[in-house]
Amino acid sequence: MGALPRAGRRRAGRALAVLADRPVHPDRDAGRGGDTGGRPAALPGAVPAAAGACRRGLPERLLRRGLLPPPRHPPAARTGQPRPGLRRLPEPHPRLGRGLRPGRRRARRRGRRRADARPARPPGHAGLREPAVDRPRRDRRAALGRRPDARRRRARRHRGPLLHPAARRPRSAGHGVVTRTALVVGAGVFGLATARALALRGWSVRVLDPNEPGTEGASSAETRILRLSHGTDDWYTDLAHRATTGWRELERESRRRLLLPTGVLTLGPRDGDGWERASAAALRRLGVPVETLTAAAVTRRFPGFDGGGSGTALFEPEAGVLLARAATRALAGSARERGAELLRGAAVPDGGTAVVDGEPLRADLTLWAVGPALPALFPGLTSVRPYRQDCWYVRPRGPWAGDEAGAGTGSGFGGRPAWLDRAHGCYGIPAVGELGVKVVPDVETDPRAATDPSPGEIPRALREYLRARLPHLADSPVLRREVCSYALMPDEHFLLARHPGRRDVWLVGGDSGHGFKHGPAWGEYVADVVEGRCAPLPRFALR
Questions:
Q1: Residue 543: CB atoms within 10 Å
Q2: Long-range CB pairs of 296-299, under 8 A, 24+ apart, other chains included
Q3: 376 within 8 A of 424, measured Cβ to Cβ
Q4: Model confidence pLDDT, tens digit, residues 373-417
Q5: Which of 140, 159, 329, 474 is deepest in the core (most CB within 10 A)?
């Protein structure tokens, strides 16, 4: 019928309706004009009645009366062969009937599955893909969530002291991917570096701390020394080497200056230089530039120092000073950009689970990286103890005064390197900005002692040290005092171990005064351990 003009199709439709109830008269319909209105009984090429043909389901009487054009292919004899250009329809399915063939239904199912298919998992995301569901069922489930009573149930479930619902319920990464969740308690360098590493690997990470990053605690100091020398311990040397690369990458990412190339000078004792020579050998194996100097060479090369009374010295020209407060904030910003959530709150452990104002925060993984607060939160579980040192800033004078134009010249910060004096138990950092020269005696101070940020005078023993080792600073006035807090382990190794009663809870800490510089590399190592990619070294066991 599609070959006729529109008017012809209307006439054929009316004729079909009229002839549907008329009886068949063989002699009249066989070809005599009769009631055809003078029209010929059949158009040229019409299908004869004897053929019994039915084209496209129309009654054969329409063909015999010439109301339709002839078929393109005249019917062949009943030989059982299909006409040219046509194919034989399959037999009706015993259960589905002729109109619903199995192949067509399978095609519909395949099309529906393709429509509901989820995109591929994003790189770095972990978890199982959620199976595809049919769209009507998904719509029904979505409709259930829009009911008022469901909203009230969710509101009751999420009511609590924290601001964001994500702090109470693990979230999904979308696209049917189930994301592993991690809660890091503590926004110091260890906690933030680990949170950033886990977020880069696709974890849904929350970081909980009562203070803003870089404002309080052990990671809030202005500056820290980054040195690679660790004597005969190649593991820490390699970790510091990788951490240096990590800090440089964070500098480029945050567009902030975090690592100053001051160089680091280590002054060894007169009675032995084994530590310095072992450090130099380890650095050379890594391809890191290093120099060994005599006491006289130290005085000639670095005018601010008096090398008398010291033994072999070790100079690392590529080491330097980290702007610790800025570096901590850069770590926090990088973790936040990768999806980590930074929450404010003071948590207490309940069998390892973090509880804030009576509400537990649950996650697939919980890490406690609270620095010196670890023994107070887990009494009797670890030998970590809080350790405090007082840092003094004095006004730069003589060779210690000047700008940073000499940075990276091979002689330190314009001849003013950071230093570690193993012979006298003291270390220091050249003036950075308006801070002054930082001098720190390696003496423990009671953590409960009061802190006076503007003292009038430094201790007498420290003044005598300046007169002997840094004579140009012997009479420099004091600018300020700063407190450096550490979490000290008896053997000065870090802590990375599971909670004895919970396999999903880990304790991380024990920086022992040399942990800050390892931040980015240590965070990657912790992420490897908690993901099961490697086992923690025995030196980091709970002790």
A1: 15
A2: 298/265, 298/267
A3: no
A4: 999 999 999 999 998 898 999 999 999 997 653 444 455 566 799
A5: 329
> Which residue type is seen at 124?
G
**Letter for the amino acid at 69?**
P
Locate 189 and state its tokens: 């360098």
Q: Which are the contacts of 147, defined by CB distance < 8 A and separation ≥ 6?
A: none
Q: Is the Cα dihedral 527, 532, 537, 543 positive or negative?
A: positive
3 state DSSP class of 250: helix
CATH of domain 181-540: 3.30.9.10
Q: How far apart are CA 445 and CA 221, in angstroms?
A: 16
CB 187 within 8 A of CB 211: yes
Summarised one tens digit per residue, pLDDT across range 47-68 is: 444 344 444 445 565 556 666 5
Nearest CA-CA partner of 350 in 497, 508, 185, 193? 185
Q: Give CA–CA dist 20/520, Å, rounded.
A: 87
Residues 58/23, Cβ–Cβ less than 8 Å:
no
How many Å apart are CA 427 and CA 464, to the nearest integer?
Answer: 14
- Decide: residue 148, CB within 10 A, 0-12 exposed, 13-18 middle, 19+ buried: exposed
What ranges in 45-134 are assigned the alpha helix state H? 60-64, 102-116
Query: What pLDDT band is residue 447 in, cutting at 50, 70 and 90?
Result: confident
Phi then psi for residue 461, to 5 deg, are -65, -35
Tokens linked to 165: 């619902």
Give residue-wise pLDDT tens across range 459-472.
Answer: 899 999 999 999 99
Report helix, strand or coil for 404: coil
**Chain length of the chain:** 543
8 Å CB contact between 214 and 328 = yes
Hey, what's the torsion of the CAs at 297, 266, 316, 440, to 10 degrees? -120
Structure token pair of residue 56: 């496209």
| CA proximity to 370, closest of 169, 183, 162 | 183
More confident residue, 262 or 112: 262
Please state whether beta strands 385-394 and 365-368 pair in parallel, antiparallel, or not at all (unpaired): unpaired
CA 45 to chain centre: 78
**pTM, full prediction:** 0.68
| Three-state secondary structure call for residue 476 | coil
The DSSP call for residue 305 is -
Q: Are strands 502-509 and 365-368 parallel, antiparallel or unpaired?
A: parallel
Q: Within 13 Å and on the Cβ side, how many CA atoms surround 384? A: 32
As beta bridge partners, residue 226 has: 320
129 vs 123: CA distance, rounded Å: 14
